[in-house]
Design brief:
Elements lengths: L1 H20 L4 E10 L2 E9 L9 E7 L5 E6 L10 E8 L7 E8 L9 E4 L5 E3 L5
Antiparallel strand pairs: 1-2, 2-5, 3-4, 3-6, 6-7, 7-8
């Protein structure tokens, strides 16, 4: 019985450690295009997805004050597709907003990975907050 308990504990520890190694979800690229008064964002996310319990599950377009403008939900893990790009159209951004940020979220760590900032006049995307 003690042997079986050791195997169960070792297996659980390995699973938990593997999930922790996946780290935070990073936004590594953003392409923004205007379409008839709204915007389409094509966002590239990198995350070491580790199955259904630990994967990048969404990304957000965020105003400078932290308000979430829109969210693209990611419905499944991308274990074998890294990095991956998904798009979201019909995003409404006020004309006087000079920039937005794009951030990613994963099921274990939440937010915290690399973000990108987009200049709304030029469409240029660069790492947010001095990240490189």
């Amino acid at each position: 019985m003690r042997y079986l308990t050791s195997i169960i504990v070792a297996t659980a520890t390995t699973i938990i450690a593997g999930a922790a190694l996946a780290g935070e979800a990073d936004v590594v690229g953003v392409r923004m295009t205007e379409r008839g008064g709204t915007y389409q964002f094509s966002v590239t996310v990198r995350h070491a997805d580790a199955g259904w319990d630990h994967y990048a599950d969404k990304w957000d377009v965020v105003a400078p004050d932290g308000t979430v403008i829109d969210t693209r939900v990611l419905a499944h893990p991308h274990d074998n597709e890294q990095p991956f790009t998904r798009s979201l159209g019909g995003v409404r951004i006020p004309a006087d907003m000079p920039k937005v940020r794009v951030r990613a979220h994963d099921k274990v760590h939440g937010y915290g990975g690399a973000e990108m900032e987009i200049d709304m006049k030029t469409g240029e995307a660069r790492p947010a907050g001095g990240q490189s």
